Structures are given as C-alpha cells and as structure tokens.
Amino acid sequence: QEQLVESGGGLVQAGGSLRLSCAASGGTFSSYGMGWFRQAPGKEREFVARIRWSFGITAYAEAVKGRFTVSRDNAKNTIYLQMNSLKSEDTAVYYCAAQNPSGVWRYWGQGTQVTVSS
Question: What local confidence, expressed as pLDDT, does residue 70 receive?
C-alpha cells in the first residue's frame, strides 16, 4: 500500500534552516508529481513546492521562491524540502503529497510540524 512518511520538522529560530524529507513506499510513483503543502493554524492548506520524479521539473509558491528548494533522490524514493531564511510565517504543519497523472493529489503523508521562533 502506498505510503508517504515525512521527517525533519522541528523548532528553529528565524533566519535558520531545516530540511524536510518524504520517503515514498508501497507503490510506483515514477509517473507522479511529488509536492509539499503546509497548513498554519486557522488557515487553509496551501501549496509550497512540487517536483517531478522524471526530469526534476520544479515549481514553487511565490512566498517561498528563493528560500526553499525541492529535490529528489530517485534511488531512495525520497524527496526533500530545503528551507532557508525561515520566517515566523513559515510556521505550519508540512505535508508531502503525490499527484497522479490526472492531476489529483492522491496520497498524503501524516505531516511534520515546523515552528519558526522570532
């Protein structure tokens, strides 16, 4: 069964860095897009970044461009989100997700908390 497991969240001071990981297992994700979303308290879940397993094409939300970098390790079936220059407004639960070829974000991880203290 398909599973996505995030790790790497935590507490960091403003201006600091964190790297999140998302390990995919139990299925064939090579034709999927992989992405990161986040949800802050009292707010809706929002898109952060995405990457294709093949070609490594990426896309970012405007709020994180230039600060966050999404990457993948095909051999490990793992994607990463390198977050630099963190701000208090980046505080949220971060979720990894897999998008099928029809464009549906079909599989989701359990989320990992990122807290940025100012």
Answer: 97
